[in-house]
Amino acid sequence: MKIVKVEAVPFAIPYAKPLRFASGEVHTADHVLVRVHTDEGLVGTAEAPPRPYTYGETQESIVAVIDKIFAPQLMGLTALEREAVHERLDRTVGNPAAKSAVDMALWDILGQAAGLPVSGLLGGYADRMRVSHMVGFAPAAEMVADAERIRETYGITTFKVKVGRQPYGEDVAACRALREALGPDVGLYIDGNRGWTASESARALHEMADLGLTFAEELCPADDVLGRRWLVARSPIPFIADESATRAAEVTRELLGGSATAISIKTARTGFTASQRVLHECEGLGVEVVMGNQIDGQIGTLCTVTFGAAHRSTSRHAGELSNFLDMTDDLLTEPLTIEHGTLRLREGAGLGIGIDPEKLARYRQDT
Ligand code: MUC
Ligand code: MG
After folding, report:
1. Are strands 342-344 and 128-135 parallel, antiparallel or unpaired?
2. pLDDT tens digits, one per residue of 213-272
């Protein structure tokens, strides 16, 4: 199982409906397909979605760091030597999406070599997850229509509402309109992507106290250290760290520093190996986790559900697994389907990612 080649293929697929949020917007899935080849002919596959406004990575930087730094460092190691692989990857700081895609592709190889599904190797808890859908910025009526369409079409009953606009009243009104239209049984939580100050966040939470929100995520920046701590201490609901807790050490810092009381785990950011470290850390500390979405395509979503369904704590809450629905197309030979509000795992060895060669030829950016 020696690594003989690591491919980083940039591709671009437009969104039918762009996703807008406080720190940016996405019109095109300009991702990188990562394929790790072994001397025995096994190929592990994953995707890296660049989020420049959150981690500084771009499609070009992901291709460059894999081609120029990671691929040469990994040649000759085997897929079983993940500790050595990560030791080498971690010589370079940052680049979370690039590192994570390499990690997940290696797990795909392990599964294929063993003839076992990766979800079983990770923990094998369940064969599916409940799905949570992210509702991006739009006028309140459009956000309500979007959520109603998603509930009717896919049976999804949990929604993460993007907030963090200025002034905050527009978001409060949108959350209220969503609660009134969707009724009391739908799960609603909010994600500010650092758009508000601590005091705006506190006022908004106070005004939404009757809406039955389950979580508040990154309402204000973690770098506003004392303001964020002040807010989290007063938050009536668990406060999720997402982009402020991108690896195990940051999770420790945010939780012990009182800047968060729950954690978003994103396989696009911590792969499977480091996601397990974060998960076990949260379990040890008694902190809730949610499977987050880095605006993944179908390949990334398959990775998220593989990890989320594999573990008990990640299965407790609906996972963010549906934003590929807003893309015009994808690369999988067998597209993902969400039914009755759930997404099932693929059967078979590895991750079960089959890439359609015609679609890849159509969307790749390097030819
Ligand atoms: C989220 O949870 O914040 C938006 C930016 C990003 O990196 O992920 C998304 C969703
Ligand atoms: Mg978030």
Report:
1. antiparallel
2. 999 999 999 999 999 999 999 999 999 999 999 999 999 999 999 999 999 999 999 999
Statement to judge: residues 143 and 238 lie in one domain: yes
Same domain, 193 and 80: no
User: Which of 57, 219, 242, 323 to probe ligand 1 with, by most ligand atoms within 8 A of CB?
Assistant: 242
Return the number of other C-beta atoms located less than 10 Å from residue 340's C-beta.
Answer: 11
Tell me the C-alpha distance between 249 and 247, whole Å: 6
Whether the CB of 295 sits within 6 Å of ligand 1: yes
- Expressed as residue numbers, the domain containing 252 is 120-344
pTM above 0.70, yes or no: yes
Closest residue to atom 4 of ligand 1, CA basis: 294
Same domain, 50 and 168: no
Angle CA(133)–CA(135)–CA(137) in degrees, nearest 5? 165
